[in-house]
Amino acid sequence: MSIILKNIYRQPDETYNIVARNHSENTMKFSPPNDKHYIACNYKIGERGSCTELNITNAHGCTANIQLEESNSNLIVSGNIESGRKTFKISKPHNFSIELTSDGYLALQCLDGNNWGPRLSNWLSFKIIPFQD
After folding, report:
1. Disulfide-capable partner of 7 in 56, 97, 118, 123 (CB 3.0 to 4.6 Å)?
2. What's CA 93's distance to the chain center, in Å?
3. Which residues lie below 8 Å from residue 33, measured CB to CB, with a gap of 6+?
4. Phi, psi (deg, nearest 5) at residue 130
């Protein structure tokens, strides 16, 4: 199944340093603070050892590491999020974007008017533990 990360957005006034690594394609993209407020990725989310990894540092020096992977028609989000690991059954290929919110959340938006799956909306939201006050 094909799950494609199109873009990563941050609020224009946020000073997140974002590094995105796609291990299956062996590529890396980044957005330093006070630079453009998005990264155009177009990364296919891979399986296990070929996951896509986000390293995010906020203005206070707190760092979060988040991994996205696809396994057996599941989207798996793990790392420094509340509960540590979340798994979602995905019924078809998806394109999505990530938004980092000013209140310390990571939101995955399914694009093209699609929902993530049965009983799921087009948004999945995760609390980033190191960014909570």
Report:
1. 97
2. 16
3. 15, 16, 17, 59
4. -65, -15
Residues 44, 29: contact at Cβ < 8 Å? no
The predicted structure's pLDDT at residue 35: 77
Q: Which residues contact 98 (CB under 8 A, 6 or more apart)?
A: 5, 7, 8, 9, 54, 106, 107, 108, 109
0.85 surpassed by pTM: yes
Cα–Cα distance for residue pair 38/25, rounded to 1 Å: 20
Q: Among 70, 86, 38, which Cα is nearest to 78's? A: 86
Note the pLDDT tens digit of each residue in 39-97: 999 999 987 668 999 999 988 899 999 999 999 889 999 999 999 999 999 878 899 99
Question: Side chain identity at 10, as an amino acid letter?
Answer: R
Question: Whole-angstrom Cα distance, residue 98 to residue 77?
Answer: 12
128, exposed or middle or buried, with CB in 10 Å at 0-12, 13-18, 19+?
buried
Query: Using CA atoms, how far apart are residues 132 and 112, in angstroms rounded to an integer?
Result: 31
